[in-house]
Amino acid sequence: MRKIFKIAGAIIAILIIALVIVFALAALDVGSYSSDANSSQTLPAKGAMVGNALVVFDPGMSGNAKNVATAVASSLQDNGYQVTLAGIKSQAATNYSTSGYDLIVVGGPCYMGKAASSVQNYLKAFNPPQNTTVGAFGIGSIQPDGNTTQVIAKEVAPLPNGSAVMIKAAMKIVSGEDINEKSTNFVKELLNVYSFPVP
Ligand SMILES: Cc1cc2nc3c(=O)[nH]c(=O)nc-3n(C[C@H](O)[C@H](O)[C@H](O)COP(=O)(O)O)c2cc1C
Fold first, then answer.
1. Superfamily of the domain at 32-191
2. Cα separation of 108 and 14, whole Å?
3. Mutate to test the pocket of ligand 1, among 111, 118, 119 (most ligand atoms within 8 A of CB)
4. Beta-strand relationship, 40-43 and 81-87
5. Per-residue pLDDT tens digits for 3-27
6. Which atom of ligand 1 is least distant from the CA of 113?
7. For a tag site, which of 62, 65, 151, 157 has the least CB within 10 Å?
8. What pTM was estimated for this model as a whole?
9. Which ligand 1 atom lies nearest to the CA of residue 112?
10. From ligand 1's centre to the CA of 110, what distance in Å?
């Protein structure tokens, strides 16, 4: 009997230690130190090119946020944009002001009710040219408090007080949701491209 208590105690201790490690890794935003966070790639427009876009992402620990950024980039390519897909610590993510982007999307994981610290820090210094269209995304396990752009943007991309940036579209993808479908609709909202039923 005593042995069972000892084993149960050891299992609980291991679970608590594992939980503390996961919380610490999330709090330190370790994903933003990965090679994905420091690199970028340029993806060609599909069909006639209509503009230039930058998609900045914090890959997170699992890389899921990169999957979402890639789906957003792919949808932008389908709409005629050449896309620079840039890790949040890459040069391409930092040098946006002189690169002539028509559109910039920023996103990453949410931890403890907020966007990852790398996303918060990126937004503190975020000052794109005035005519740039801006969108934001986040991933997480909890649905946002509402479905308006304002509510979602406040959680996934909190802008500092006094920021002149206007976020035109925002989405949060929660575990189990269809990344491609949500990303396509997000890009439609960002570009104002809606398909109307043919009578
Ligand atoms: C310590 C910790 C805190 C989290 N807090 C939230 C949260 O407040 N809201 C949310 O939607 N998801 C939260 N999540 C879930 C993560 O956002 C989700 O697992 C996401 O996929 C993180 O990506 P990653 O695992 O690639 O880092 C949390 C996850 C961890 C580990």
1. Flavodoxin domain (3.40.50.360)
2. 29
3. 111
4. antiparallel
5. 888 888 888 887 877 777 676 777 7
6. 8
7. 62
8. 0.91
9. 8
10. 5
